[in-house]
Write a structure and sequence with these properties.
The protein has 11 helices and 13 strands. By secondary structure, the chain is α+β, with helices and mostly antiparallel strands. The longest helix is centred in the first third of the chain and has 17 residues.
């Protein structure tokens, strides 16, 4: 898994108007929705404390736990701060997954249409001509990951991604990496061209603003295209807004971001990787006989040919409806619908066990 040096950016430090607006929007909505008195929690208080201490010992810099939309715990050890935006790395992918679902809702595309419908350059390719948007989103398209796309030396990431070679037949391999998302970005760019709107602007007005997150710092190339795989910087409170939308099956409060049926598609694993849906990691195998816990980051460090995702789970002791958004350096957004929990954990690239953390937190 791509592991750049951990980065924290003060949300207010650059004097940039958009970043200041983001902080104001996030703080105002937080006061209205989440900053309520400590709830009468279903989570055991000592278990909560043990989980928080475990995270802090392993260089955690923020931990935010919400139950029923109310704050159970909010702490910022090791130099963290409520107003520091921390890079969420691959957590960024989930935002573009949702943006693609919104685009489907808007009639701009269909998840099962060939990418070549939009990317005409692919129409003459024996394999790439048949890759669908859904296969791009669940990394089963057989394309090389092209990890070099993470480099800021790449001036035009979309153009490079379109030249990605195939390394496996469609559906035969899970090749997690940045190429797939950058191709998706180019699809969105072309679909939105008639509206004179960029992919990031679409994400901003369809997701970031409605969710109450506001504008966010992100990594762009010289063409202004966002790094889909790893570019967003969010505070714990901002990221928790995305988690609340996940609890709402695509809605936050009374506002629908994507229809419930469309959101449910995110939680369906593929044949080649049942543990991964569309941008989200799943715990559905936890109750299966012989289920094996998996350190997602360790597995992704292996070559795709050596990865084994079958009968894997995040934590055997957590509910099977646990869903995780995962970023390098153990940036985590956990959502457990059956317990009405949203958990944001951010850290500075020290070894951390999702399974051990969740066992501590969910102990009764």
């Amino acid at each position: 898994m791509y592991r750049p040096a951990p980065t924290q950016t003060p949300l207010l430090s650059a004097g940039h108007l958009l970043r200041r607006s983001a902080a104001c929007i996030g703080s105002a909505i937080w006061l209205m929705v989440a900053a309520a008195p400590l709830a009468d929690a279903g989570v055991d208080r000592q278990a909560l404390r043990d989980a928080a201490d475990y995270s802090a010992r392993l260089r955690g810099c923020s931990l935010l736990v919400l139950e029923h939309g109310k704050t159970l715990l909010e702490e910022y050890p090791n130099g963290g701060d409520a107003h520091l935006a921390h890079q969420i790395y691959s957590g960024t992918k989930a935002f573009f997954t949702l943006a693609t679902l919104v685009a489907a809702k808007d009639g701009l595309l269909h998840l099962d249409e060939p990418v070549a419908n939009t990317i005409s350059e692919w129409r003459g390719s024996s394999q790439r001509a048949n890759i669908t948007l859904r296969e791009l989103m669940n990394f089963s398209d057989g394309l090389d990951p092209v990890f070099h796309l993470h480099s800021d030396k790449v001036a035009d990431r979309n153009a490079l991604a379109l030249r990605t070679p195939t390394v496996a037949p469609i559906g035969a391999a899970f090749t997690y990496g940045p190429s797939h998302g950058q191709i998706l970005c180019e699809v969105l760019r072309r679909k939105l061209a008639s509206r004179n709107e960029s992919p990031f602007a679409y994400v901003q007005h369809k997701l970031l603003i409605p969710l109450g997150i506001g504008p966010v710092p992100y990594r762009a190339d010289t063409q202004g295209m966002p790094l889909v795989a790893s570019g967003f910087f969010l505070t714990a409170r901002q990221w928790s807004r995305f988690g609340l939308m996940m609890l709402g099956h695509g809605s936050i409060g009374r506002r629908e971001i994507v229809p419930p049926k469309a959101f449910a598609a995110c939680l369906q694993g593929s044949r080649i990787n049942p543990m991964f849906g569309l941008g989200f990691w799943l715990n559905t195998a936890a109750a299966s006989k012989g289920a094996r816990e998996c350190d997602i980051e360790e597995m992704l460090e292996k070559k795709w040919q050596d990865q084994d995702w079958h009968n894997r789970c995040i934590c055997r002791n957590a509910p099977t409806d646990l869903v995780a958004v995962v970023g390098s350096g153990y940036q985590r957004l956990f959502v457990i619908p059956s317990l009405d929990l949203v958990i944001v954990r951010q850290g500075t690239n020290a070894k951390f066990s999702d399974a051990e953390f969740l066992r501590k937190l969910l102990r009764h």
